[in-house]
Amino acid sequence: MKILLTGGTGYIGSHTAIELIKRGYEVEIMDNLFNSKITVLDEIEKITGVKPKFYKVDLLDKEGLNKLFSEGNYDIVIHFAGLKAVGESVEKPLKYYENNVGGTINLLEVMSKYNVKKIVFSSSATVYGEQAKTEMTEEMQTGVGITNPYGETKHIIEEMLKDVAEADKDYEVTILRYFNPVGAHESGLIGEDPNDIPNNLMPIIMKVSTGEIAELSVYGDDYDTVDGTGMRDYIHVVDLAEGHVAAIEHMKPGVLIYNLGTGKATSVLEMISAFEKESGKKLPYKIVGRRPGDLAIIFANPEKAFKELGWKTKLTIEDAMRDTINYLNKRS
Q: Which tens digits make up the pLDDT trace of 275-311?
């Protein structure tokens, strides 16, 4: 089976490439390298012994996509590519709609032209919006109370994929809603290394630990949680990558939707403490006001993925911290 990963040199894409190659799949990668580095291909080769074919193509380059698919003979596309900085999406919404939604339209048009009708889409828990619930299930309403254009683009793409599959019954679509990916490959060769300003907790912890950011801001310590700080579902990126392997091995006509999370929540202070314990280094932080719209606790109910895909997480927060620190040490 030949699989194309769009955005495959990124954080989640590169880890997924490794797990697919390990299982004998033929993997090719396209990426515009806007938020990743070409050297990731060398690291994938060191880990797997295989260097995936790479094409520098942008989703907005319809001609480039056509050329890629005319020669590719792909069976499945795993669609990771997209802009993902939440704050930037608020400042530059049109850029996000053009790139994420417009780029996906181009991709789907070219896929249909070359009769590639299997796609796994990298979505996000942000599609659930600000629902006053702590445990997210796939049956919950989406698209209401989304607070940023990034999340809106994920929801729009999900709806587009449902419409495409409804119009053409040959389509096999799987939508994977991520929670909070953390960690790195156990080799320390690849991990999270964003080019943009990080919005998520873990890359900020990493940058505070290396001195690139002076201190970490903790948004609120008066929530009804174990220690007053917000709690989220943090999933090891290797578990997340395994979820993609399970997804492509259980595809069928129509649309399947799965949460990929651990089923439990960890607080901001627990994350800081786990990093400090593993690294032996104190992380400076300050408590600041709550962010508008932040809920106290959010986590995935991953039961559907376990029942239908046979997938569940195996790695812990401690594993994620160990692997992140190993990655930071190898990089320094």
A: 999 999 999 999 999 988 788 999 999 999 999 999 9
Q: What residue numbers bound the domain in which 249 lies?
A: 2-183+234-261+299-315
Q: What is the reported pLDDT for 227? A: 98
- Please indicate, yes or no, if residue 117 is contained in any of the structural domains: yes
Question: What was the pLDDT predicted at 228?
Answer: 97
d(CA 203, CA 183): 10
Catalytic entry in 96, 150, 223, 234: 150
* Contacts within 8 Å (CB) and 24+ apart, 290-293: 290/219, 290/220, 290/222, 290/223, 291/219, 291/220, 292/147, 293/130, 293/145, 293/147
pLDDT band at 182 (very low <50, low <70, confident <90, very high): very high
Is residue 150 part of the annotated active site? The answer reads yes
Percentages of the chain per state (helix, strand, coil), in multiples of 5: 40, 20, 40
Number of domains in the chain: 1
User: Average pLDDT, stretch 206-234?
Assistant: 95
> Is residue 81 one of the residues assigned to a domain?
yes
Domain assignment present for 34: yes
169, 103 contact by CB (below 8 A): no
CATH number for 61: 3.40.50.720
92 domain-assigned: yes
Q: How many CB atoms lie within 10 A of CB 224?
A: 7
Burial of 61: CB neighbours in 10 Å, binned 0-12, 13-18, 19+? middle
pTM over 0.70: yes
Q: What separation in angstroms does the CA of 28 have from each of 6, 53, 139, 328?
A: 9, 5, 33, 27
- 117-173 pLDDT per residue, tens: 999 999 999 999 988 789 999 999 999 989 899 999 999 999 999 999 999 999 999
Q: Which of 209, 190, 189, 191 is nearest to 279 (CA)?
A: 209
